Amino acid sequence: MTDRVFVRLEQRAVIEVGGEDRRTFLQGLVSNDMTKVAGDRAVYAGLLTPQGKFLFDLFVVELGDLFLIETEAARAEDLRKKLSMYKLRAKVTLALSSTLAAFAALGDGAAKVFDLEAEAGAATEFAGGVAFVDPRLAESGLRLLLPADGGERVLAANGFAAAPFEVWDQARLRLGLPDGSRDIEIDKGLLLENGFDELKGVDFQKGCYMGQELTARTKYRSLIKKRLMPVEFSGPAPVVGSDIRLGEAEAGEMRSSSGNVGLALVRLEQFRASGGVGLTSGGATLTARKPDWAVFPEGE
What we know:
Blueprint: E1 5-8, E2 12-18, H1 22-27, E3 43-48, E4 54-63, E5 66-72, H2 76-84, E6 93-96, E7 100-106, H3 110-113, E8 123-126, E9 129-133, E10 142-147, H4 151-157, E11 161-162, H5 165-175, H6 212-220, E12 226-234, E13 243-246, E14 249-258, E15 261-267, H7 268-274, E16 279-281, E17 284-288
Parallel strand pairs: 1-11
Antiparallel strand pairs: 1-7, 2-5, 2-6, 3-4, 4-5, 7-10, 8-9, 9-10, 12-15, 12-17, 13-14, 14-15, 16-17
């Protein structure tokens, strides 16, 4: 992509976390190291069940005396309530932002517009909010948390043209990047099945957090048998959750899609056997591909 474009991410929202204990509070809950979060550094993380299953994905960055958490809009209040359950006596405030909206910016040289290096997680204050390079993968472009009533205007003034949601959605699908519960099953998905290790969403040195034991065990005992990966398909778009097969064998489940590209949670055994070719789901034929950034188990 050469043209610089922006997309308002209506499916995402912002939670503001304030109070002097905000860093230590989040540190004991989420999968990444909150000591890395700063005004010039954003991180990606997950919030898990005590059993290590996926609940929420988070982008966390600092703006002034607040942490800003970007998460799913439809579930943002659920996340705020979940975090509130763990406040106890911590000096922390939690509120859905009524002023900030989430945007994505794509295109060659997009980071330079904000005086940022094209380095995953690089962040800066911008136009009353914050701009940061996707902390998972710099090739994914930037995410911006900007005033809802002026974000589009300021991006247009800086040379970005408005683009349909599908432009951003298909770009992240081709890169193999999940978008919250559109791609990771709540109360069931494992972070490492969904690339959180390679995408810098887990810190294995930070100590305890909710769900840490299972996450560490799946890594060090090589227990991952499925991986989320990009697929291209011909025929009707498979429904989210529909079975993927290789002949008669179960080969995985479909996740989100747009156009003729999508994501699927594919069994590694069937991926090895087929090279990702000849998979089917309903009336569609699929080809799965290992993302360039991914590290699969020995033999992949």
